[in-house]
Amino acid sequence: MDKIDNDILHNVICFLAADDLARLSCVSKKFKHEHEHISKMAWVEHAAFKWALSPQFINNYFPKMSSSELSQLYPISSPIISAINSDHHDTRNLIFDAERVAVDFVGRVGESNRSVQGNSPFPSRCDKNESTDRSSFIENMMTFASKMAEEFLKECDFPEFDMDDYDEPDVQRHSVPFARLLENGNVEFVVKPRFISYYEVEIKPSKYEHDPAISGFECVAVGLATKSFMKNKRLPGWDHESFGYHGDDGAIFHGQGKQLSEFGPRYGCNDTIGCGLNHKDNSIFFTCNGVLLGTAFENVPKDVDLYPTVGVDTNCSMHLNFGDRPFKFDLVAYMEAIDPLFST
Question: Are residues 180 and 69 in the same domain?
Fold first, then answer.
């Protein structure tokens, strides 16, 4: 390896699959120490793919993260949701803004129901990708390394995230970067493994002209739904495929058009509503303007993919935040309070 030019070595390494790259880092101490910059560039490419971020973004926000740290996070990584979609037939009245991940409805509210949905789900146990597969490459890597020599295994350790601590059969932790606003006004991105998936919907006045005739009450409904949920006909909570917290009455819905119970305050324009999925106890919670409202649904099925879903029966503008900018709710403080491993 000493005789290989660094540029050539980099080009070769970039062709390696994640499991092969991990094994190389384990069995070659020389590669591990003397070619860390090349190894990190390769891991950045893999992490960028899994997190749906650009390599430049990772280098800018995680400059001190080593190749070992990236390799430990990779198998439990999930992508940041970066787009929303809808099946609503009247696309003329739904205006999407891809850059802001936002949507406006400019037709007459109260006449039909429509919802938008994230283009990818929250992590789930039925996910068959590398992040949840029990035979994931990280375990193969560790097994392979331990057979070679104990010192190689130590080289794979990630002190801040000992994966043995996270190996709980009833808890699935995942790593999805999300922004957090610091006291000094700067923004940091958090990548620690967690068992909470979360997103927020900021409801703002619309900049578009609307049909002045309104035939009913406006309603925003925030929640989660399966891929089978009929986005063009229903609001989240109006069938067994979805769970929703509705702004017109502050009630929660699941399985039927009638409310299950009163839950929180009514909400609408100029409010921010958050929805979280707790993978540890299979529950759904909500927040309003940064304040935790509590658990709304328990015993949520853990063998299905649930997508962030928002009912749009309003002429306000819906801005969905999946973590690329700071949440109004302090997700870090919440995780530190309920998960000892997250606070270490």
Answer: no
